[in-house]
């Protein structure tokens, strides 16, 4: 996924994706490289430690035969598929590294390309395994005493059986008290908490948008909450801003970054160097914020 995807429907809209990695860093999409000629890689010797020897834990191994190659002091396993394509494609999935190459490209050339691309491969394999490990963690249990991420910290849910319904937040104690009928189930608790989080998101966004609009000298037409699965925010050329309510889980500087990012599109409806200079002019720490959002996997957020 590209850092910022351009959506074509009118009016023109730019969206800030949940995955902030560069386009060639998306583990879901292949990276194409021409098939350069390289020296023949070293053969694999017994006893060499294997790096990423098989599928990610909890997945099913592919039936495609696996090959091995020395990369530094490790052995890297990969699956090779032949096709009619004209370039070598790299794809990281739950089974590890898969390479698609033209039928005329030799193994030596393919493995030379692997050596050339090794930093990207290792980084994405590590990222994929970490994400898979997080998915194996126990999901949040919606009950009294559960913890919930809010503005970069954790708050504790306190559920009080009551005839009526109500919700109150104690910022000093970092406690969200929810009153529900005794017979209420988990879904009702989630619905009440989600409603509160969305109202908090709307309040905070409404406070921060004018701050950065004034700094940038722009005027937005309106803003609305989004629950998009792949975007933190979006902006159309006629000034309509959408911000993902799940940003409420993150620290205020990350929220400010997304807001500054979207409003900057009202001056530069693109992702050119001038656009990034515009973002930096009002949010100098944008690079660190972008990395922090990239490191916060959506899988780690509570499910509603």
From TrEMBL:
Ranges annotated as biased composition (Basic and acidic residues): 30-41
Gene3D superfamilies from the UniProt entry: Metalloproteases ('zincins'), catalytic domain (3.30.2010.10)
Region named Disordered: 17-67
Residue stretches in coiled coil: none
YgjP-like metallopeptidase domain segment(s): 87-296
Biased composition (Low complexity): 46-64
Name this protein carries in UniProt: YgjP-like metallopeptidase domain-containing protein
Organism: Noviherbaspirillum humi
């Amino acid at each position: 996924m590209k850092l910022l995807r351009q959506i074509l429907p009118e009016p023109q809209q730019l969206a800030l994706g949940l995955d902030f990695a560069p386009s060639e860093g998306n583990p879901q999409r292949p990276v194409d490289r021409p098939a350069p000629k390289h020296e023949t890689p070293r053969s694999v010797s017994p006893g060499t430690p294997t790096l990423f020897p098989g599928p990610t834990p909890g997945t099913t191994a592919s039936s495609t035969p696996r090959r091995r190659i020395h990369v530094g002091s490790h052995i890297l396993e990969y699956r090779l598929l032949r096709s009619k394509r004209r370039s070598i494609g790299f794809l990281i999935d739950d089974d590890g590294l898969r390479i698609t190459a033209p039928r005329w490209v030799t193994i030596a050339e393919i493995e030379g390309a692997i050596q050339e691309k090794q930093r990207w491969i290792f980084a994405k394999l590590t990222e994929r395994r970490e994400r898979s490990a997080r998915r194996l963690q126990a999901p949040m249990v919606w009950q009294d005493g559960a913890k919930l991420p809010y503005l970069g910290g954790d708050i504790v849910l306190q559920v009080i059986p009551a005839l009526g319904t109500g919700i109150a937040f104690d910022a000093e104690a970092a406690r969200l008290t929810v009153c529900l009928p005794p017979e209420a189930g988990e879904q009702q608790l989630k619905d009440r908490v989600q409603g509160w989080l969305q109202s908090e998101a709307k309040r905070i966004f409404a406070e921060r948008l004018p701050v950065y609009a004034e700094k940038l000298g722009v005027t937005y037409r309106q803003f609305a909450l989004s629950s998009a699965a792949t975007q933190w925010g979006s902006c159309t050329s006629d000034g309509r801003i959408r911000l993902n309510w799940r940003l409420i889980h993150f620290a205020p500087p990350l929220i400010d970054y997304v807001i500054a990012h979207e409003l900057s599109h009202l001056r530069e409806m693109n992702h050119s160097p001038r656009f990034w200079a515009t973002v930096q002019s009002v949010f100098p720490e944008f690079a660190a914020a972008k990395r922090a959002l990239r490191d916060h996997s959506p899988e780690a957020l509570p499910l509603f």
